Amino acid sequence: GVCEYLNVAEFDADMFERVFKVNVFGTMNCVEALLPQFNDSAHLVIVDSLARLLPFTKAQAYGGSKAAMHYIARSLEVDLKPKGIKVQTVSPGFVKTPMTDANDFEMPMRVDVEFASQAIIKGIKKGKRDIAFPWLFSSLLKFMSILPESIQVKLSEQMARKQQ
Fold first, then answer.
1. Sequence spans of domains, the chain
2. What DSSP letter does each residue of 138-150 carry, written as one string?
3. Biggest alpha carbon distance in the chain?
4. pLDDT digit string (tens) for 130-142?
5. pLDDT at position 152
């Protein structure tokens, strides 16, 4: 996937298009090509992100694209489960990659690629519906995501101020 950050003072709809083309439509093109090949024991794994859970500053395109991927995966699950096709999502937090190395903000509980790949493999083997990691970070974000939206926005505003 890709991530570009938005400066709302210079709103750029083209940036949303670039991010969605890779993160959403790139994945959907793969699904379109593979789905006809699937049999009743097939397995579809779609990567979204924990960023889908809360409104993070400047990450509107990235978070929106990952929220879209999660929704699409769950909807596909409804349609594919009766055919015996399993759908899993991978919802990572921050993983140390060239993409996150370019970030200029604190990334709590960032994990290395080895940790991430082992968590994904373990989750797939266990048949977990949503493979979210690291556990503490995902648990905190999932808890925050069930709070009223007004509180979510206030928490996100506080995090944004802390990053300035």
1. 8-163
2. HHHHHHHHTS-HH
3. 51
4. 999 999 999 999 9
5. 94
Q: Give residue-wise pLDDT tens across range 97-117.
A: 777 767 776 777 788 999 999
CA distance 155 to 55: 9
Cα–Cα distance measured from residue 101 to residue 64, given in angstroms and rounded to the nearest whole number: 21
Q: Residue 102 carries which DSSP code?
A: T
- All residues at 6 or more sequence positions from 126 whose CB lies less than 8 Å from its CB, including other chains: none
86 membership: H or E segment, kind and range = strand 86-92
Q: Does domain 8-163 have CATH number 3.30.70.100?
A: no
User: What pTM was computed for the model?
Assistant: 0.90
| Other C-beta atoms lying within 10 Å of the C-beta of residue 19 | 24
Query: CA distances (Å), 124 to each of 19, 117, 146, 154, in order?
Result: 26, 11, 26, 35
> What gap in Å lies between CA 143 and CA 145, rounded to an integer?
5
